[in-house]
Design a protein that fits this description.
Blueprint lengths: L1 H9 L3 H4 L3 H12 L10 E14 L21 E9 L4 E10 L12 E10 L5 E8 L34 E13 L2 E16 L2 E16 L3 E16 L3 H10 L5 H7 L3 E17 L2 E11 L7 E12 L4 E14 L2 H9 L9 H16 L2 E15 L2 E12 L14 E12 L1
Antiparallel strand pairs: 1-2, 1-16, 2-3, 3-4, 4-5, 5-6, 6-7, 7-8, 8-9, 9-10, 10-11, 11-12, 12-13, 13-14, 14-15, 15-16
Helix pairs in contact: 4-5, 4-7, 5-6, 6-7
């Protein structure tokens, strides 16, 4: 039975494990022994849901997630349930199942996924260790990323909570966290390590090693968080295979074409992710800001990226109006483009028309990965119940980035996203 439990940690879809929350509980009982179990009331169930609707103001084929010119109820709709089992005084276990209306990993709509499954050992009131499947702590709101009730917006700002990193939103491994006082400052510290396989659109991704740490500093009304994560990454895409096959065939002309072909695949490349965020509560006002930076290797199919947002909101009774400004830019590694241009000195343009077409298409693909985006958001949240809210939001996007969901041909695209989201926790 323990081997079945371990196998389920490796497979992402819930249906692959044929496992229910009750089964999770029985597995935990088996793993840790029943003699030290607490009473049945130490099994706690909770859940969350967001029901969203949205559309774009454009009449063409532009998309933002699943939103287009018609109303859709998929992109911001999500349901999650969670079980917490207190196995003994020090041991506990958590399982979370999430069903999403839209994902970037090509899963079926609302396919249940085992998002969390970990055991936790509480060494002291301040220090604990977890092992299993957990959220990768990249952001201020990583632990409540899908709980819309936990933040003021319809969705976390896409300029920083970028869809490109959705494939590494969780990992299989372990972490250690502790808290301590540092003078007048209260500090949360976490270190973690693990691995993950994932998919983003047409890219197959394997994070063979994930290592990271983050600090969160608390004062009376101010919190500042910094985290760094490094990941050894393999990435490939079937959409790039015609390019690589074409260059491999052209390698009979010169070895530079073999080098170009290999540069379209990422193998054992180390990427760094840095995240900085703060939250400042000033009476009825709340200021939230985050910035991230991705540093990739200086060779192969890799990129650097930067993104940030600034949010301001005010509590006015049951209403919370808010405004957000954000920015995103992706810098694709210039080595591939330089190699393609250098190959023209080996086989000059006009000699082999098929090779000219191959290089032209490749340069267009490379330029497409040099993306930028800006966003401007106005919205209002209404807490009509202690465990429920409804949000109305207008978000203006000016972007050439893949955060719009489609491969765009024009250099600049603009759209207005209208969203209505109902959030619940239970």
């Amino acid at each position: 039975m323990l081997s079945f439990f371990a196998a389920c940690l490796v497979k992402l879809p819930l249906r692959s494990c044929r496992i229910s929350l009750q089964t999770v509980y029985l597995l935990i009982v088996y793993a840790f022994g029943s003699t030290t179990l607490y009473a049945a009331n130490d099994v706690h169930f909770s859940g969350f849901a967001s029901i969203g609707a949205g559309k774009l103001d454009r009449k063409d084929d532009m998309r933002f997630m699943d939103y287009d010119s018609d109303w859709s109820f998929r992109s911001d709709t999500i349901l999650g349930v969670q079980a917490l089992v207190n196995v003994s005084q020090r041991w506990s276990a958590t399982a979370q199942v999430v069903s999403r209306g839209f994902t970037f990993d090509k899963k079926s709509d609302f396919e249940p996924t085992l998002e969390w499954l970990f055991a936790k050992y509480q060494w002291t009131p301040e220090t604990s260790t977890r092992i299993g499947r957990m959220r990768t702590p990249l952001y201020l709101y990583s632990d409540t990323l899908e709980i819309g009730y936990s933040y003021p917006w319809s969705r976390p700002p896409v300029d920083t909570y970028t869809f490109l990193l959705s494939a590494i939103s969780d990992f299989n491994g372990l972490d250690v966290s502790t808290s301590f006082d540092l003078g007048s400052t209260y500090v949360d510290f976490r270190a973690f390590a693990g691995a993950k396989k994932g998919k983003y659109l047409e890219f197959d991704l394997e994070f063979k090693k994930i290592i990271g740490t983050n600090f969160k500093f608390h004062w009376d009304n101010l919190s500042i968080r910094y985290g760094v994560t490094v990941a050894e990454t393999d990435a490939s895409s079937k959409s790039l295979e015609p390019l690589t096959e074409g260059y491999e065939f052209a390698s009979i002309l010169d070895p530079i074409f073999t080098e170009i072909a290999e540069a379209h695949i990422t193998e054992s490349a180390w990427f760094q992710y840095h995240g900085l965020g703060l939250q400042w509560d000033l009476d009825s006002w709340t200021l939230i800001a985050e910035q991230y930076l991705v540093n990739g290797p200086e060779e192969g199919f890799a990129n650097d990226a930067i993104g940030w947002y600034f949010s301001i909101s005010r509590q006015m009774g049951h209403f919370v109006p808010y405004a957000v400004v954000g920015y995103y830019k992706n810098y694709f590694n210039g080595q591939v483009k330089q190699l393609v241009q250098d190959s023209e000195s080996v086989v000059a343009p006009g000699i082999i028309p098929l090779l000219d077409t191959l290089r032209e298409v490749d340069l267009e693909v490379i330029d497409r990965y040099n993306e930028r985006g800006e966003s401007y958001t106005l919205g209002i949240r209404y807490d009509f119940h202690t465990n429920a809210d409804i949000k109305f939001e207008l978000q203006f996007l000016e972007s050439t980035a893949l955060l719009l969901g489609d491969e765009l041909d024009s250099p600049d695209e603009e759209t207005l996203v209208t969203s209505i989201v109902l959030d619940l926790v239970f």
